[in-house]
Amino acid sequence: MRDSVVYSRHMSDDFAGADVLISIRDLTFSRGPRRIFDGIDLDIPRGKITAIMGPSGTGKTTLLKLIGGQLRPDAGTVQVAGQNVHALSLGQLYELRKRMGMLFQTGALLTDLSVFENVAFPLREHTRLPESMIRTLVLMKLQAVGLRGARDLMPAQLSGGMARRVALARAIALDPMMILYDEPFTGQDPISMGVLVKLIHDLNEQLGLTSIIVSHDVKETAGIADYIYLISEGRVVGRGDPERIAHSDSPWVGQFMHGLADGPVPFHYPASDYAADLLGRPC
Ligand SMILES: Nc1ncnc2c1ncn2[C@@H]1O[C@H](COP(=O)(O)OP(=O)(O)OP(=O)(O)O)[C@@H](O)[C@H]1O
Protein backbone atom coordinates (compact mmCIF):
# COMPACT_ATOMS: atom_id res chain seq x y z
CA MET A 1 0.00 0.00 0.00
CA ARG A 2 1.28 3.47 -0.81
CA ASP A 3 2.37 5.59 2.14
CA SER A 4 0.05 8.39 1.12
CA VAL A 5 -2.90 6.04 1.47
CA VAL A 6 -1.72 4.95 4.89
CA TYR A 7 -1.23 8.56 5.88
CA SER A 8 -4.65 9.55 4.69
CA ARG A 9 -6.12 7.08 7.18
CA HIS A 10 -4.11 8.70 9.99
CA MET A 11 -4.94 12.10 8.63
CA SER A 12 -8.65 11.62 9.06
CA ASP A 13 -7.88 10.66 12.69
CA ASP A 14 -5.72 13.77 13.19
CA PHE A 15 -8.29 16.16 11.85
CA ALA A 16 -11.46 14.40 12.94
CA GLY A 17 -13.89 17.15 13.81
CA ALA A 18 -11.35 19.86 12.91
CA ASP A 19 -12.13 22.70 10.57
CA VAL A 20 -10.06 21.99 7.47
CA LEU A 21 -9.37 24.99 5.20
CA ILE A 22 -7.36 23.23 2.48
CA SER A 23 -7.91 19.70 1.43
CA ILE A 24 -5.62 18.04 -1.12
CA ARG A 25 -6.57 14.66 -2.48
CA ASP A 26 -4.67 12.21 -4.65
CA LEU A 27 -2.63 15.02 -6.16
CA THR A 28 -0.34 14.09 -9.02
CA PHE A 29 1.95 16.54 -10.76
CA SER A 30 4.89 16.08 -13.12
CA ARG A 31 7.50 18.37 -14.61
CA GLY A 32 8.42 16.78 -17.93
CA PRO A 33 9.36 13.18 -17.18
CA ARG A 34 9.80 13.88 -13.46
CA ARG A 35 6.90 12.97 -11.19
CA ILE A 36 6.95 15.58 -8.42
CA PHE A 37 3.82 14.38 -6.58
CA ASP A 38 2.48 10.91 -6.80
CA GLY A 39 -1.01 10.95 -5.38
CA ILE A 40 -0.50 12.85 -2.13
CA ASP A 41 -3.18 13.72 0.41
CA LEU A 42 -2.86 16.63 2.82
CA ASP A 43 -5.23 18.55 5.05
CA ILE A 44 -4.46 22.05 6.31
CA PRO A 45 -6.46 22.97 9.43
CA ARG A 46 -8.03 26.41 9.61
CA GLY A 47 -6.61 28.89 12.08
CA LYS A 48 -3.38 26.95 12.61
CA ILE A 49 0.21 27.12 11.40
CA THR A 50 1.13 24.17 9.22
CA ALA A 51 4.73 23.58 8.17
CA ILE A 52 5.70 21.79 5.00
CA MET A 53 9.26 20.58 5.12
CA GLY A 54 11.43 18.24 3.16
CA PRO A 55 14.64 17.98 1.18
CA SER A 56 15.55 20.55 -1.43
CA GLY A 57 13.86 20.11 -4.78
CA THR A 58 11.17 17.85 -3.37
CA GLY A 59 8.31 20.06 -4.53
CA LYS A 60 7.38 22.32 -1.60
CA THR A 61 7.21 25.52 -3.63
CA THR A 62 5.42 23.58 -6.33
CA LEU A 63 2.82 22.55 -3.75
CA LEU A 64 2.23 26.19 -2.76
CA LYS A 65 1.77 27.07 -6.45
CA LEU A 66 -0.72 24.24 -6.87
CA ILE A 67 -2.65 25.54 -3.85
CA GLY A 68 -2.57 29.08 -5.25
CA GLY A 69 -3.74 27.93 -8.67
CA GLN A 70 -0.54 29.10 -10.42
CA LEU A 71 0.00 25.48 -11.46
CA ARG A 72 -2.53 22.88 -12.52
CA PRO A 73 -2.27 19.27 -11.29
CA ASP A 74 -2.23 16.31 -13.69
CA ALA A 75 -4.77 14.59 -11.46
CA GLY A 76 -6.37 15.01 -8.05
CA THR A 77 -7.97 17.99 -6.37
CA VAL A 78 -7.05 21.01 -4.26
CA GLN A 79 -9.96 22.45 -2.32
CA VAL A 80 -9.55 25.81 -0.59
CA ALA A 81 -12.42 26.94 1.61
CA GLY A 82 -14.66 24.44 -0.13
CA GLN A 83 -13.75 25.57 -3.66
CA ASN A 84 -11.99 23.30 -6.12
CA VAL A 85 -9.16 25.66 -7.11
CA HIS A 86 -8.63 24.15 -10.54
CA ALA A 87 -12.29 24.15 -11.50
CA LEU A 88 -12.67 27.91 -10.95
CA SER A 89 -13.06 30.43 -13.73
CA LEU A 90 -10.27 33.01 -14.06
CA GLY A 91 -12.47 35.59 -12.34
CA GLN A 92 -13.22 33.26 -9.44
CA LEU A 93 -9.55 32.33 -9.11
CA TYR A 94 -8.64 36.02 -9.03
CA GLU A 95 -11.15 36.55 -6.20
CA LEU A 96 -9.82 33.55 -4.27
CA ARG A 97 -6.22 34.72 -4.67
CA LYS A 98 -7.10 38.05 -3.11
CA ARG A 99 -7.89 36.06 0.03
CA MET A 100 -4.52 34.27 -0.06
CA GLY A 101 -1.55 36.31 1.10
CA MET A 102 1.72 35.07 -0.29
CA LEU A 103 5.17 35.77 1.00
CA PHE A 104 7.60 34.29 -1.45
CA GLN A 105 11.32 34.45 -0.88
CA THR A 106 11.74 36.17 -4.23
CA GLY A 107 8.70 38.40 -3.71
CA ALA A 108 10.68 41.60 -3.78
CA LEU A 109 9.27 44.99 -2.92
CA LEU A 110 8.67 47.46 -5.71
CA THR A 111 11.92 49.39 -5.59
CA ASP A 112 10.52 52.68 -6.93
CA LEU A 113 7.83 52.88 -4.26
CA SER A 114 8.18 53.82 -0.60
CA VAL A 115 7.36 51.38 2.19
CA PHE A 116 3.95 53.06 2.54
CA GLU A 117 3.19 52.77 -1.16
CA ASN A 118 4.31 49.14 -1.30
CA VAL A 119 1.79 48.23 1.38
CA ALA A 120 -0.87 50.44 -0.20
CA PHE A 121 -0.31 48.81 -3.60
CA PRO A 122 -2.73 45.84 -3.26
CA LEU A 123 -5.34 48.12 -1.69
CA ARG A 124 -5.12 50.49 -4.64
CA GLU A 125 -5.14 47.59 -7.13
CA HIS A 126 -8.02 45.63 -5.68
CA THR A 127 -10.26 48.11 -3.89
CA ARG A 128 -11.81 51.50 -4.44
CA LEU A 129 -11.32 52.64 -0.88
CA PRO A 130 -10.92 56.37 -0.24
CA GLU A 131 -7.41 57.63 0.40
CA SER A 132 -8.11 58.29 4.10
CA MET A 133 -9.11 54.64 4.58
CA ILE A 134 -6.08 53.39 2.65
CA ARG A 135 -3.85 55.49 4.87
CA THR A 136 -5.41 54.05 8.04
CA LEU A 137 -5.16 50.47 6.78
CA VAL A 138 -1.53 50.87 5.67
CA LEU A 139 -0.55 52.35 9.02
CA MET A 140 -2.34 49.52 10.85
CA LYS A 141 -0.51 46.87 8.81
CA LEU A 142 2.83 48.62 9.29
CA GLN A 143 2.14 48.93 13.01
CA ALA A 144 1.43 45.18 13.13
CA VAL A 145 4.91 44.44 11.75
CA GLY A 146 6.56 47.15 13.86
CA LEU A 147 7.49 49.42 10.95
CA ARG A 148 5.00 52.28 11.06
CA GLY A 149 7.96 54.58 11.65
CA ALA A 150 9.63 53.38 8.45
CA ARG A 151 6.76 54.30 6.16
CA ASP A 152 8.69 56.92 4.18
CA LEU A 153 11.80 54.82 3.58
CA MET A 154 12.56 53.35 0.18
CA PRO A 155 13.23 49.60 -0.15
CA ALA A 156 16.95 50.24 -0.76
CA GLN A 157 17.13 51.79 2.72
CA LEU A 158 15.80 48.69 4.49
CA SER A 159 17.69 45.77 5.98
CA GLY A 160 16.77 42.31 4.64
CA GLY A 161 14.70 41.59 7.75
CA MET A 162 12.84 44.90 7.51
CA ALA A 163 12.14 44.30 3.81
CA ARG A 164 10.60 40.96 4.62
CA ARG A 165 8.42 42.54 7.30
CA VAL A 166 7.22 45.16 4.81
CA ALA A 167 6.43 42.34 2.38
CA LEU A 168 4.49 40.69 5.19
CA ALA A 169 2.53 43.91 5.83
CA ARG A 170 1.75 43.99 2.10
CA ALA A 171 0.68 40.32 2.18
CA ILE A 172 -1.87 41.06 4.93
CA ALA A 173 -3.06 44.35 3.41
CA LEU A 174 -6.25 42.83 2.02
CA ASP A 175 -6.99 40.86 5.21
CA PRO A 176 -6.47 37.44 3.66
CA MET A 177 -7.86 34.29 5.21
CA MET A 178 -4.49 32.59 4.85
CA ILE A 179 -0.84 33.27 4.18
CA LEU A 180 1.54 31.05 2.29
CA TYR A 181 5.16 31.60 3.34
CA ASP A 182 7.93 30.24 1.13
CA GLU A 183 11.24 30.16 3.02
CA PRO A 184 10.45 33.24 5.11
CA PHE A 185 13.63 32.96 7.22
CA THR A 186 16.23 32.45 4.51
CA GLY A 187 19.19 34.80 4.77
CA GLN A 188 18.13 36.35 8.07
CA ASP A 189 20.45 36.90 11.01
CA PRO A 190 19.32 35.21 14.25
CA ILE A 191 17.66 38.34 15.62
CA SER A 192 15.68 39.07 12.44
CA MET A 193 14.78 35.42 12.30
CA GLY A 194 13.48 35.52 15.85
CA VAL A 195 11.46 38.64 15.04
CA LEU A 196 9.94 37.00 11.96
CA VAL A 197 9.15 33.77 13.78
CA LYS A 198 7.31 35.68 16.52
CA LEU A 199 5.58 37.89 13.97
CA ILE A 200 4.27 34.96 11.94
CA HIS A 201 3.01 33.33 15.11
CA ASP A 202 1.43 36.50 16.54
CA LEU A 203 -0.20 37.55 13.26
CA ASN A 204 -1.71 34.10 12.90
CA GLU A 205 -3.24 34.42 16.35
CA GLN A 206 -4.27 38.06 16.22
CA LEU A 207 -5.68 38.11 12.69
CA GLY A 208 -7.21 34.63 12.88
CA LEU A 209 -5.18 33.53 9.86
CA THR A 210 -4.27 30.12 8.57
CA SER A 211 -0.57 29.92 7.77
CA ILE A 212 1.41 27.49 5.70
CA ILE A 213 5.18 27.73 6.02
CA VAL A 214 7.59 26.06 3.64
CA SER A 215 10.98 26.15 5.29
CA HIS A 216 14.28 24.39 5.80
CA ASP A 217 14.74 26.04 9.15
CA VAL A 218 13.64 23.08 11.20
CA LYS A 219 14.04 24.48 14.70
CA GLU A 220 12.36 27.82 14.03
CA THR A 221 9.54 26.35 12.00
CA ALA A 222 8.84 23.46 14.34
CA GLY A 223 8.81 26.00 17.19
CA ILE A 224 5.67 27.71 15.91
CA ALA A 225 3.99 25.01 13.80
CA ASP A 226 0.88 23.30 15.06
CA TYR A 227 1.26 20.58 12.47
CA ILE A 228 4.12 19.41 10.26
CA TYR A 229 4.17 17.55 6.97
CA LEU A 230 7.44 16.13 5.75
CA ILE A 231 7.46 15.37 2.06
CA SER A 232 10.02 13.57 -0.01
CA GLU A 233 10.05 12.00 -3.45
CA GLY A 234 6.47 12.87 -4.18
CA ARG A 235 4.99 11.49 -1.00
CA VAL A 236 4.21 12.45 2.57
CA VAL A 237 6.87 10.65 4.64
CA GLY A 238 6.07 12.13 8.01
CA ARG A 239 3.21 14.01 9.59
CA GLY A 240 2.04 15.10 12.99
CA ASP A 241 2.40 17.78 15.61
CA PRO A 242 5.98 18.83 16.43
CA GLU A 243 6.04 16.48 19.42
CA ARG A 244 5.08 13.47 17.34
CA ILE A 245 7.54 14.41 14.60
CA ALA A 246 10.37 14.88 17.14
CA HIS A 247 9.80 11.39 18.49
CA SER A 248 9.18 9.69 15.19
CA ASP A 249 11.09 6.48 14.62
CA SER A 250 10.97 6.92 10.84
CA PRO A 251 14.51 7.12 9.37
CA TRP A 252 13.29 9.73 6.83
CA VAL A 253 11.95 11.98 9.54
CA GLY A 254 15.01 11.49 11.74
CA GLN A 255 17.42 12.30 8.93
CA PHE A 256 15.63 15.48 7.99
CA MET A 257 14.83 16.80 11.44
CA HIS A 258 18.38 16.20 12.70
CA GLY A 259 20.13 17.29 9.51
CA LEU A 260 22.01 14.03 9.05
CA ALA A 261 24.06 13.50 5.90
CA ASP A 262 23.45 9.75 5.90
CA GLY A 263 20.02 8.24 5.64
CA PRO A 264 17.29 7.38 3.18
CA VAL A 265 17.18 10.83 1.57
CA PRO A 266 19.36 10.51 -1.54
CA PHE A 267 22.23 12.98 -2.02
CA HIS A 268 22.07 12.74 -5.81
CA TYR A 269 19.40 14.07 -8.12
CA PRO A 270 18.26 11.07 -10.21
CA ALA A 271 20.89 10.49 -12.90
CA SER A 272 21.98 7.94 -15.46
CA ASP A 273 24.81 5.47 -14.78
CA TYR A 274 27.88 7.48 -13.73
CA ALA A 275 30.58 5.40 -15.46
CA ALA A 276 28.62 5.26 -18.71
CA ASP A 277 28.04 8.98 -18.48
CA LEU A 278 31.77 9.73 -18.01
CA LEU A 279 32.63 7.53 -20.97
CA GLY A 280 30.03 9.30 -23.09
CA ARG A 281 28.11 6.09 -23.70
CA PRO A 282 24.34 6.18 -24.14
CA CYS A 283 22.62 4.92 -20.97
N1 LIG B 1 9.64 26.10 -13.82
C1 LIG B 1 10.13 24.85 -13.71
N2 LIG B 1 10.35 24.09 -14.79
C2 LIG B 1 10.82 22.83 -14.66
N3 LIG B 1 11.11 22.22 -13.49
C3 LIG B 1 10.92 22.95 -12.38
C4 LIG B 1 10.43 24.30 -12.42
N4 LIG B 1 10.34 24.74 -11.15
C5 LIG B 1 10.77 23.73 -10.37
N5 LIG B 1 11.11 22.66 -11.10
C6 LIG B 1 11.59 21.37 -10.58
O1 LIG B 1 10.56 20.84 -9.77
C7 LIG B 1 11.12 20.21 -8.63
C8 LIG B 1 10.48 20.78 -7.37
O2 LIG B 1 10.86 22.15 -7.27
P1 LIG B 1 10.42 23.03 -6.02
O3 LIG B 1 10.99 24.39 -6.23
O4 LIG B 1 8.97 22.91 -5.81
O5 LIG B 1 11.18 22.28 -4.83
P2 LIG B 1 11.37 22.73 -3.32
O6 LIG B 1 11.07 21.54 -2.49
O7 LIG B 1 10.58 23.96 -3.06
O8 LIG B 1 12.93 23.03 -3.30
P3 LIG B 1 13.80 24.01 -2.38
O9 LIG B 1 13.62 23.51 -0.99
O10 LIG B 1 15.19 23.79 -2.88
O11 LIG B 1 13.28 25.40 -2.60
C9 LIG B 1 12.63 20.41 -8.69
O12 LIG B 1 13.19 19.23 -9.19
C10 LIG B 1 12.80 21.53 -9.67
O13 LIG B 1 14.00 21.35 -10.39
TrEMBL record:
The UniProt entry, under Pfam families, shows:
ABC_tran
Entry superkingdom = Bacteria
The record's annotation in CDD domains points to: ABC_Org_Solvent_Resistant
Keyword hit for Hydrolase: no
Q: Which InterPro entries does this UniProt record tie to the protein?
A: AAA+_ATPase, ABC_transporter-like_ATP-bd, ABC_transporter-like_CS, P-loop_NTPase
Under PANTHER family, the record lists: INTERMEMBRANE PHOSPHOLIPID TRANSPORT SYSTEM ATP-BINDING PROTEIN MLAF, PROTEIN TRIGALACTOSYLDIACYLGLYCEROL 3, CHLOROPLASTIC
- Protein's name in the database: Intermembrane phospholipid transport system, ATP binding subunit MlaF
